[in-house]
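for the writeup, i need someone to sanity check this before i put it in the appendix. the sequnce is what the collaborator sent (i think, or maybe the updated version? ugh). structure was predicted straight from it, no edits. if anything looks off just tell me and ill rerun, i have time this weekend
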Amino acid sequence: MVDSLDDGRDFNKARGFLLTYSALVLALWYFGADLTHFKLMGNEVRLQQRTNSIWLVLAALNAYFWFRCYQRIPPAGLNFDNAMDGLYEASLRWVALTLGRRKLKQEIVSEVAKRTREGAPFKIQSYTTQLSYRPTHDLSKRQRGVGLKSRILLYEYRVRVYLKAKYMCQSDKGWLDGEKTSYYVMSVLIAWPIKIFIVLRGAFVTPWFTDYVAPLLFGFVSTAFALWKWYSINFLASSLQHHTLMCASVSTITHGQISFLL
C-alpha cells in the first residue's frame, strides 16, 4: 500500500514539473524572451558564449522532464479506465446498431414471412445491444486469427456486437411475439475512428485524458517548439541573412550596370 501511494505521489510530482516547465518554455517562446541575461538568486547573470544553443538546452531539459513523467505513469495508466471504457463500449453498440439495423430488419421480414405469410404487418418493439467481443490488452483473452490473411486484415482487432430485436407480427390468430438476434462485426476501419473520437470526447467529460495524456502532449509540443526555435536561430536565420546579402549584391550589380549604360 505504501509503495502504491509513493508511486502516485512520484507521478504527481513528475507531472507537475513537466507541466510547469513546459508552460514556462512555451511562454518564453511566445513572448520572444531574451535569454542571454536573467536573474539568479538576486544576481544578474549575462551569458557570453554559446547563446545560440540556449533553446537546445531548454529542449533537452524539457525532454528530460517528459521522460521522467512517462516513466512514473502507473501501470496501464495510458489504457482506458472504467469511465472511458464505458463511453467506448456505448459508442460501439450505438454504431453497430445504426449500421446493422437495416440488415436485422430484413431478417425479421424473412422470419415473419416464414411464421405467418409474406408481407404480413409487423412492428418492432425494442432494440438491445451487447458487446460480444472487443480487443483487450490481456493476451490470454484476445481472440487471434489463424493464417497470414487474418494477420494482414487484423482480425484480432475486430469488434463483435450482439444485436437483438423484439417484434410483434400479425397472423390469422392475432398478434404474435417474436425475437430476432444477429451479430455485427466492425473492422478496425470502424472501431479505431470510434476510439479516436472517444479520446477527444473523453478529454471533456472524464479526467483520464487530462491526467495522463494531456501532460505528455503538452510536454511534447513545448519541446518541439524549443527545438524549432533553436533550429530557426542557427539555420533559418543564417540562411535568410545569406539570401538577403545575395539579393543586395545582385541589386547593386544590376544598378551599377544600368548606371554604366546610361
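The first helix runs from residue 2 to 30. Residues 1-5 have pLDDT under 50 and may be disordered.
thx in advance!!
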